[in-house]
Write a structure and sequence with these properties.
Layout (H helix, E strand, L loop, with lengths): L2 E2 L13 E6 L6 E3 L8 E2 L5 E6 L5 E3 L2 E2 L13 E6 L6 E3 L8 E2 L5 E6 L7 E3 L2 E2 L13 E6 L6 E3 L8 E2 L5 E6 L7 E3 L2 E2 L13 E6 L6 E3 L2 E2 L7 E2 L1
Parallel strand pairs: 1-4, 2-5, 3-6, 4-7, 5-8, 6-9, 7-10, 8-11, 9-12, 10-13, 11-14, 12-15, 13-16, 14-17, 15-18, 17-20, 18-21, 19-22, 20-23
Length: 233
Amino acid sequence: GCYIGTDETGSTIMGNDIGLEFISGSNNSTIGGTTLAERNIISGNLHIGIRLLDVEYCTVKGCIIGLNREGNDSLPNYDGMSMEGAVRYCTIGGTSPEERNIISGNTDYGLPLFGAGATQNVIIGNYIGTDITGTQPIGNTYGVLFDDGSYSNRVGGDTDAERNIISGNVGYGVFFYNNGTNNNLLKNNFIGTDYTGRQAVANTAGIIIDGISYKNIMDGNIISGNTQVGIGI
């Protein structure tokens, strides 16, 4: 239920350098909740909104990261939420609308996940690059980044409730990059459309795979409406 990086109205930037930082064993932590009273507005911070570094079993749910409290205008962090190092077994979002994070409007990355120890994390049910309604673009530059050896993480899942909307981003929706970034699963997401899958909310590129990234799986996604390439390898 906090405003972290804004004034008391949740509409004007008063940034910290990093909004929230959980590091080195601060495990089993929960950020946010499933009611409006538990929602955090984590926006306007100069570096990162939320940083998870070398932690396990943390949950982030029901937060607005990079927008105002109404979720309809950008109050950018530089990066929205960064998952780094040996970050493992964390869940970002959830299968109910109340658990959904809105990670949008950030200057660079919405959700970068990088480091050779970054594994077994689950990112489900979020809007990444849109407003709170899932219909209007308020893009990050990049939506989701897998980098520097992050492996065996899952974005989306078998059910519609696990679907992420990764749309409206100025650059790439999803970016797989660098050696050792492998065996990540991108499943059943909408990448370049609104939450219905019927209207375009374009990224510039849907998915880019680059820099010796290998064995990543893309299954059952809708990758449409993007202004340039759907998938570039």
